[in-house]
């Protein structure tokens, strides 16, 4: 039986390679809108981040998220991401 390869992506916060399903995808759509992609299938340029606040803070502080998406991330989206990641941390 063939072993299925698990796709891995690098977190823009901690710079670690992790399985794609463990990470949260943030996408810049062709229209220039930046949003959280819960399905992982939206069109556009994507960046992956661990579902914890520390990685998000590192990515924002180092402007890695801006660089990965080739756009400046609005503060409203950063606060929305913080709320979603905080909810994920309390659940898990």
From TrEMBL:
Per UniProt, residues of the YlxR domain are 9-83
Tell me the protein's name: YlxR domain-containing protein
According to the lineage, what is the superkingdom? Answer: Bacteria
Q: Which InterPro entries match?
A: YlxR, YlxR-like_sf, YlxR_dom
In terms of NCBIfam families, this protein maps to: RNA_bind_RnpM
Q: One matching Pfam family, short form?
A: YlxR
What are the boundaries of the signal sequence? none
Coiled-coil region(s): none
């Amino acid at each position: 039986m063939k072993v299925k390869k698990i796709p891995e992506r690098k977190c823009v916060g901690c710079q670690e390679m992790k399985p794609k399903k463990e990470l949260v995808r943030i996408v810049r759509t062709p229209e220039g809108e930046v949003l959280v992609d819960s399905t992982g299938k939206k069109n556009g340029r994507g960046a992956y981040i661990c579902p914890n606040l520390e990685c998000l803070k590192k990515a924002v502080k180092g402007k890695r998220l801006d660089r990965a998406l080739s756009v400046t991330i609005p503060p409203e989206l950063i606060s929305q991401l913080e709320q979603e990641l905080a909810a994920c941390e309390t659940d898990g």
